[in-house]
Amino acid sequence: MIKVSVVGAKGRMGSHVVDAVNGAADTELALTLDAGDDLGRITPENTDVVVEFTVPSVSLNNVLALIGQGVDVVVGTTGWTDEKLDQVRAALAEAPRKNQSVFIAPNFAISAVLADHFAKVAAPYFESAEVLELHHPNKVDAPSGTAIHTAHAIADARKAAGLGEVPDNTETDGGSRGQVIDGIHVHAVRLRGLNAHEEVLFGNAGEQLTIRADSFDRISFMPGVLLAVRKIATGDHSGLTVGLDHFLDL
Q1: CA-wise closest residue to 229 among 79, 72, 89, 77
Q2: Which superfamily, per CATH, for 2-104+219-247?
Q3: Among 23, 99, 108, 235, which residue carries the largest CB count within 10 Å?
Q4: Does residue 47 contact residue 23 with C-beta atoms inside 8 Å?
């Protein structure tokens, strides 16, 4: 049995993780912590893997503390920058255990991970590309970590294929063209009734390809969370791993 502790256990995602861990045949719930609780209670003796679902303002400090306590961490909190990821790598280099692991997922939904992969495959074949992400209005970051990850993947594939800039003759848009990430326009919608959705739009003269992933309920993220927990628990993925695609044999 894999002993799993959940940080952010009372949150929207954390509560689902608690249920998923309790419902799986190969995992058992060790500790549940939330804001104000002492992370020092989590040790290698009582926990194999920690699942961290909190908010961007505290997630980095949580992860650094857990690394210092010698436990492996699966992170679902978004808002990770290159600078923050470098801090995690530096902490892992000094970790108490040489094979310690941190896994960070921009998105745990299998559909979203596959959409991101398909977008990377399609990117070299289209002149234009844009990303549209749609979420509930309680989401604290915009654009989403998934959309940022997708934009970077598209940009990398375009560069590798020798494509130039995405065509855009807009002169003054007042921000309506969205945030530009690595040359790709990313648009964020926050609307009551939505959960988590992403569209990747590709265009050539006379044709268009749309790749869309929809998560209608947070339960859709749980198979990905459990997959990450199981992979990290094997001890075969030391260091920092970013993206569930690493575990899907794509």
Answers
A1: 72
A2: NAD(P)-binding Rossmann-like Domain (3.40.50.720)
A3: 108
A4: no
pLDDT recorded at residue 106: 83
Residue ranges at the known binding site for (S)-2,3,4,5-tetrahydrodipicolinate: 136, 145-146
C-alpha to C-alpha distance for 74 and 76, rounded to whole angstroms? 7
**Is there a common fold for 2-104+219-247 and 110-216?**
no
Question: Which of 49, 55, 60, 50 lies closest to 77 in space, CA to CA?
Answer: 55
Is the per-residue pLDDT at 40 higher than 80? Answer: yes
Q: Which residues are annotated as a binding site for NAD(+)?
A: 8-13, 37, 76-78, 105-108
Model confidence, pTM: 0.83
Query: Given 3, 16, 120, 135, which residue is catalytic?
Result: 135
Structure tokens at 168: 């855009």
**Catalytic residue at 139?**
yes
Residue with tokens 């790709």: 184
Domain range annotation of the chain:
2-104+219-247, 110-216
Q: Would you state the CATH architecture of domain 110-216?
A: 2-Layer Sandwich (3.30)
Q: What does the pLDDT look like over 148-162, one tens digit per residue? A: 989 999 999 999 999
Q: Is the pLDDT of residue 21 over 80?
A: yes
Q: Per-residue pLDDT tens for 2-16?
A: 999 999 999 989 999
Residue 120 a catalytic site member:
no
